[in-house]
Amino acid sequence: MKTLRFLLEKEFRQIFRDPAILRMMFIMPVIQLVVLPMAANYEVKNVKLSVVDHDHSSYSRNLVNKIKSSGYFILTGYSSSFDAALKQVEVDQADIVLEIPADFEKTIVRENKAGLFLAVNAINGVKAGIGSQYLNTIIRDYNQEIRLQWIQMPRFNNEPRIQTTSSNWFNVHMNYQKFMVPGILVILLTMVGAFLTSLNIVKEKEIGTIEQINVTPVRKVHFILGKLIPFWIMGQIILTIGLTIGRLVYGIIPEGNIGLIYLFSSVYLLAVLGLGLLVSTFVQTQQQAMLISFFFMMIFILMGGLYTSIDSMPAWAQMITRFNPVSYFIDVMRMVVLKGSRLKDILPHMGIMAIFALVLNSWAVFSYKKRS
Amino acid sequence: MIELNTHMITADKLTKQFGDFTAVDQISFDVSKGEIFGFLGANGAGKTTAMRMLCGLSLPTSGKASVNGFDVNTETEKIKRSIGYMSQKFSLYEDLTVRENMRFYGGIYGMTIPQIKLKTQYILEHLHLEKEKDTLVGSLPLGWKQKLSFSVAIFHDPSIVFLDEPTGGVDPITRREFWEMIYEAAHKGTTIFVTTHYMDEAEYCNRVCIMVDGRIEAMDTPANLKKQYESAHMEDVFLKLARKATRIAD
Prior knowledge:
The complex is a heterodimer of chains A (about 375) and B (about 250). With about 375 residues, chain A is an alpha/beta fold. Chain A has helices spanning about 1-15, 20-40, 60-70, 80-90, 105-110, 125-150, 175-205, 210-215, 220-250, 260-280, 285-300, 315-320, 325-340, 345-365, and strands at about 45-55, 75-80, 95-100, 115-120. With about 250 residues, chain B is of the alpha/beta class. Chain B has a single domain, classed as Rossmann fold (3-Layer(aba) Sandwich). In chain B, the strands form 2 sheets. Chain B has a 6-stranded mixed β-sheet, sandwiched between helices. In chain B, strands 2-1-4-5 form a 4-stranded antiparallel β-sheet, with helices on one face. In chain B, β1 (about 5-20) and β2 (about 20-35) form a beta hairpin. The longest helix of chain B has 16 residues, at about 170-185. The N and C termini of chain B lie far apart (about 35 Å). Classes of the chains: A alpha/beta (about 375), B alpha/beta (about 250). The interface between A and B is medium-sized, with 25 and 28 residues.
């Protein structure tokens, strides 16, 4: 126990003496939390629309006006030939081409139906998909208006309709920031935990001080605890900074008990620190440690359910996400922050995370050798 | 004071292989208490590997050895309590001050705070480093760093200290001072096991052992070796022996 005290004293001295680490630990989260949630927004706006109007009737103009006034589209072209519009797509000036046929108005009036043609630039899949959905909704709406204008609705509508109205539970206004901030915070915590511990130990390997430690009677459990505890504390501090930014900048106040987040993060940090430790026992240089941590981070981030929805992944990919600690914390964050979940709701996640922590740390202690 | 009857280190056919490369090939020797035992050899002769096995940093492939009465195969943690080690690489923390380094190393060897304070004061005075006690070790000149390193290696009063090329890159004056420190420690009864390839330093040792290609080629006092190989200096003895090497130095 006394040995541990000296080890901790030394670690804290070194951490607070290294301006680069301090910057990384405190300024990085602040910038990421202020910039990323503002930029990362799933709502598709500014879809560039090119209209090919062969009709030039009041109906076609009304439709175009309606689309324009929705706020989601920017009219970048209004041409009379489809080829010209397609050229615009080619040079990236248009995302969607809406072609209005020549007898649009006439056919509606005479035959009570008309066809429109949409050509979508699907290079950016998300934008294409959501953009054309918006456009379809607007056109359907427009259709409705015409019908109202033209035919007196019969008392009993001969065409049965089902109208859906939806309301968003737990995040009423579909506020993306409320959705992103907790997730980004989890990723930051993971990065600090896994990156910094592995770099710290590998640095001692590089400069040779670890050999000096290995020749002392320090027990490896003490040595490892001496590395874990400081970064565990740093992690909790970063979490606090993050939650404060969430509250001050984005007005995010967790629905549930904030203590639950800390409770979960205390287990979670043990798991990611264990991962960092494990990486450090397998590599020799800081470069190697960086590359391996980076590999894990990429998978953690992209398969963590923050930028991509786990539910829409194929079954094998969903299996992989079960081994991704990030996905559990993001889940817990959302449960507590948005839904107001209680302890018993997050217990299964806690259990799994405890297993992660146990396995990773025992593995790290096992593969850390004082003797070669 | 050398006590010839008390063997602090004994090695018996100690061997280390890395794959099919034999770094240390069946070396046997004894080192007495208070002796300054020099380990000489070209780069890659196996000096550091032999020393690492004795310190418990490397597991021997075969053979037996004991340090301070403890077996290097099974009792390494007991060995570590009673030895000091100064590696080839400078291994104090450059981002800690002189005092903090001493406190740290003293602490992890189980010394109490008052013991650490007393010893720190003694060393600072002895090395004339009182003004630098709060200087980061990284900003000290190399010669001072090496002397400090040695002082930290014997901070907890080990009975044996292992020095792996302690004076590499150090100027002659500092080297001289360094050896005075070694003598002083030996005089107090500390056993010194030192590797070097400075032949003038070999003359300072009570006994030297010359390693070639992982094997011990010669082992005796410097005076006897010079007589045996009909040379005026240790340098000539070393060259006569080391030229037999077939292994390519790293």
